[in-house]
Each structure stands twice: as C-alpha cells, then as structure tokens.
C-alpha cells in the first residue's frame, strides 16, 4: 500500500489479478463490496499519537542483559555472573542488586526481553539500533552513506516536523563511533535539513554554553537575514555540516539555523543553570546525567525526538569513562567498569529521570527507550568478561502509551535466545513511530528515488497500554 509523505494512505489500484482473486473469494462470502469496504477501513485508519515526544537513551557498547534486567540466577556457573537479583516494585520483575534505586521504578516500565538480530560488530549493530533497518552486511567498516537509512530523529523531522523555532530533534552530548562514525545518526537520503540538532559539548562542564545559539558581537539578527552572512556564521560556528555545494537540504539547514538563533525559548531550554542545584545533583554531575536533565527540558520546550548517547565510544580498559563494552579487561575482575562506573551512573540517572518526568506529568506523553546495540554472551569468557551477543538482549520502555510493570517476551534458561515473542529492532522502530502517530509503513524515497517504508517491522501491540 503506497503512502504519502505525512503518513496517510490511498488505496492501491486494483490490478486484473487482484480483481480475479477478489472474484474467487466471493465463493467464501467475501463479495466485492465487502472487500472494498474492508480496504477503505484500512486506508482510513486514524493514527492517534500516544506520545508527543521520544527520548532515546542509547546505551552504546552493548549492556549485558544478564547483569541488568534479565538475570539468570539458576543458570550454571560461568553464565549466571556474580550479581544477585533483587525484587523490584513490579510483581515478578527482578533486577541486579547493583541497581537498587532502579528496582523501585520498575512499576513504571515495560521490559522487552526478547530483542534479537545477527549483527555482531558495533558499527553495523549500532546502525541497526539507531535506524531500525538492518545493514547490508555485518561489517565493522560500515560507513555513513546516503545509501543507508536515516536516524529515527530525521524520519520524525521529515514526517511530523515541529513548528516554529524549536527543532524537531536534538542529539547530544556526543556522536557515537567505533573507529569511524557510526551510521544512523544523520538524515542520510532525506537531506541535511532533517539532521537533528547536534550539541557536542559536555553539559556537566562548568563552562557549558552553546555559542551556536548566540549572535557574535556587532551582528544583529536583521543583518543575519541576508543569506551570505548567515552562511558565514553557520559555517564558522557549527562546523557540523557538509560544506559541499551539492549537499542536499542546504537551504533548509540555513533557515533552521536562523530560526534557532532568534529563539529565546530554545536558549532557555539549554540553560541548565535555571535548574535547582538539588535537581542537578539528583541526576548526577556527569555528562550523561546532565544530558538526561537537558532532555527533560527539551521535551518541555516541544522537541519531539531527543537522543542521549551514553558514551562516545564503546569502552576500553578505563573504569571512569566509556561505553558498555566489557571485554577489554585482561584481568580476573568481573567487569570492573560495570561495578565502578556503568551501574552507579545508571542507578542514579535513570530512576531520577523517570521519576522527574512522571512527577511533572510528562511521562505519559513521552516515550522513553533505553537500549543498546546488542547484549553480551551468556557464557563468561576466559578473561572473566562477556563478548558481543545480538541473539538476545533487553530493551526498556517507559511512558508514551506503553504498559507499566510489564514484561514482553522471554529469553531461554541461559539468556541465549528468545524463548517467547521475539522482537527485532525493526519492530521496536515500528512501535516508536506508531506511538508518535506516524504509520510505520509510510514510504519515503531513497537516494535512487525508490519508495521505501520507514520500517519493515511490526508494531508490538502487546506492550501498548
């Protein structure tokens, strides 16, 4: 079924083959008028947005489901790990004992314990997680290219753009990469005007500021309405754009930049100094913690899709920074970065963010998605760690029309493969679009001008309240 750019659809023309098939179905009581009425019902299905915004908390590096939200305490030694499960606020849901505060907010969330795909490399799996489309191959060298699909944020900006000076989408506090820039973070074939607004600064830094949203001394807003002056300013201040004269969407990019430069509301949304010190401390004085606080402020300002990246890199042998990759430690400690860094920061920021959103009445209309690009191997390796494992992992959803205190799907006894209701990133993408009121089978045109759907997945209707 072909769909127009904003998600409505029109009936596909009836071919001779379809008409003959319909005639044959009349023997089963499906007459032509009934078929046409059924087709019309599908065509005119009204999309109702359950969520006004999405906050996508991307856990780069791949958190272990067995150390967080799908523990296997009865599994054999070498699989179950060293953490203990504890009861949560939701009946029947247990989480790691390293997440005691998070355990108290599990009655607000849905866990999908049957996420799976086959991409074992960070860049290919990351692209899949950030776009909802499987890459052409599982290749660590996968590069950003107009042939690949755009970021969720860019699709939302294309199909359901915000109005006024507030950007539809924002991404911070850094982009993610593993050797090279991970695809799925930009607008790709949709054109540069649909790129999210990137804020590549640490919001926890004492001198955090956004010069992109400030006019240079001596230059008035009126002067900037001249296109050449605007181009000079954007080029010098943002340095985020492709400077090629052939870059798609360049005019729209400039127009958005000009609108944002004139927005007091947007500057105020990014001004964390307006928050009480007690709130800032509660979120955690980390780049991730303050980014989640900034995400709340941007949702309040009207931004529709906010991406917060947990870390710029997958992780390494540091215990004070980095993503969720845990197999770089060649010692006998059990995932030292998890205990020293990942778990404490997660247990401070995630429950604070969800509670704050709920207390302000924002959670019901904001879908929060916490997920990485894959999980970790059930079997602990010789370096007392876990390796990449896309065959089964967990995603956490909250607000925006999803159920509370609910588990969808299940892994097998060792957390190796989905045992019930398997879910792919495509399905998670379809569900996000659906909750935003965007038909997940809406077609856009790719770099070769071919119509392609924004998602090949299916809406996970069991998680919707």
UniProtKB/TrEMBL annotation:
Transmembrane segments: none annotated. InterPro entries: Alkaline_phosphatase_core_sf, DUF1501. This is DUF1501 domain-containing protein. It comes from Prosthecobacter dejongeii.
């Amino acid at each position: 079924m072909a769909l127009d750019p904003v998600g409505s659809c029109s009936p596909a023309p009836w071919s001779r083959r379809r008409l003959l098939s319909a005639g044959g179905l009349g023997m089963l009581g499906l007459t032509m008028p009934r078929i046409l009425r059924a087709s019309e019902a599908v065509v005119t299905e009204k999309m109702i947005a359950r969520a006004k915004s999405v906050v996508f908390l991307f856990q780069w590096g791949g958190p272990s489901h067995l150390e967080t939200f799908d523990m296997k305490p009865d599994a054999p030694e070498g699989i179950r790990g060293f953490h203990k499960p504890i009861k949560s606020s939701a009946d029947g849901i247990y989480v790691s004992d390293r997440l005691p505060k998070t355990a108290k907010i599990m009655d607000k969330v849905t866990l999908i314990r049957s996420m799976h795909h086959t991409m074992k490399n960070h860049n290919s799996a990351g692209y899949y997680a950030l776009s909802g489309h499987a890459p052409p191959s599982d290749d660590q060298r996968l590069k950003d290219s107009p042939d690949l699909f755009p970021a969720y944020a860019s699709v939302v900006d294309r199909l359901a753009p915000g109005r006024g000076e507030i950007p539809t989408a924002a991404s911070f506090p850094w982009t993610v990469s593993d050797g090279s820039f991970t695809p799925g973070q930009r607008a790709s074939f949709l054109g540069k005007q649909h790129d999210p607004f990137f804020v590549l600064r640490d919001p926890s830094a004492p001198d955090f500021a956004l010069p992109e949203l400030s006019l240079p001394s001596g230059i008035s807003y009126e002067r900037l309405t001249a296109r050449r002056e605007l181009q000079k300013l954007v080029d010098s201040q943002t340095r985020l754009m492709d400077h090629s004269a052939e870059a798609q969407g360049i005019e729209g990019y400039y127009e958005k930049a000009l609108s944002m430069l004139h927005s007091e509301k947007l500057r105020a949304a990014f001004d964390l100094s307006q928050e009480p010190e007690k709130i800032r401390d509660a979120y955690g004085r980390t780049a991730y913690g303050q980014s989640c606080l900034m995400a709340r402020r941007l949702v309040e300002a009207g931004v529709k899709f906010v991406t917060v990246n947990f870390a710029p890199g997958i992780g390494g042998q540091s215990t004070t920074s980095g993503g969720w990759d845990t197999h770089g430690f060649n010692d006998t400690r059990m995932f030292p970065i998890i205990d020293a860094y990942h778990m404490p920061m997660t247990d401070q920021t995630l429950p604070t963010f969800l509670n704050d959103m709920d207390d302000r009445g924002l959670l019901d209309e904001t879908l929060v998605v916490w997920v990485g690009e894959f999980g970790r191997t059930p079997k602990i390796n010789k370096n007392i760690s876990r390796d990449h494992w896309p065959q089964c992992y967990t995603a956490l959803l909250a607000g925006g029309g999803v159920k509370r205190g609910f588990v969808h799907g299940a892994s097998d006894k060792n957390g190796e493969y989905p045992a019930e209701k398997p879910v792919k990133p495509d399905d998670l993408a379809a569900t996000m679009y659906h909750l935003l009121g965007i038909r997940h089978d809406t077609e856009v045109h790719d770099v070769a001008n071919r119509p392609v759907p924004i998602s090949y997945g299916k809406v996970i209707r069991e998680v919707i309240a």
